[in-house]
Structure formats: C-alpha cells, structure tokens
Amino acid sequence: MPDIHDRIRTEVMDKERALWTALTSAEPASEIIKLSNSYANFLWPKKEVLTFQDEKKFRRALKAPFHRFDTYELQDVRIIIMGLMAATVTCTVDATRDNKRWRATSHTTWSQASDGEWRICTHQETRI
C-alpha cells in the first residue's frame, strides 16, 4: 500500500491535469469553478486577479480563445506537500495552438476540503 504522501501526490497530480484539461478547453469556467474553493484566486498573464466574487466577470475572462490549445504538456512537475490537507504544484507548461508555441511556469495550491476533494486555493501562470 502506498504511503500517504504518495497518495496525496497522485491525487493532486490528477487534479492538476484536470485543471489544465479544463483550462485548455473552449469553455473552461464551469469546470474550474467545480475544481476550486469558493475563495480561490487566479493570476493569469495580462489579467487582474480573478475570483468568484464576480462570477460573470470570471466567466467573461475565460471566454475563448483563452488558453484553447491544440496540445499541452506539463514539464518539470514538482509537488510539495505542506501537510495532509495542502499541497502545491509547480511546473512548466509547453503548449501549442495553430502551430504557435506558448510557454509558462505554473503554480497551483490545493487544499483538501471536508468532503475529501482537493480544490484550488490559488493558481498562477507566468509566461516565459
């Protein structure tokens, strides 16, 4: 049986992939809201900090072509476990759209809710 830290790494990495799958879809807002705590903060390049306080504004900010990629790959993934109910994922994202390359560093902090689900607290991307 894997130890608790291995299980946390696996669960958080599955959630991080779900986040990036949502981010690269045509309409990511609904899925990102499901993956997040109600107080989550999002910091995307060339956008102000987004929260769910104004859900309409959040949804508008994520309208296509926001992050709609043909392909993406998470590289140099590092998962830091901060406790049994918190972890952070840092990585480099390499994506393409219409044969144009998009690269960024990414950081997502996850916390485990009372229902056992891992949810986003913060997510930040920095173009490189």
Automatic annotation (TrEMBL):
- Residue ranges of the DUF4440 domain? 14-120
The domain of life is Eukaryota
Q: What is this protein called?
A: DUF4440 domain-containing protein
Q: What is the lineage of its organism?
A: Eukaryota, Fungi, Dikarya, Ascomycota, Pezizomycotina
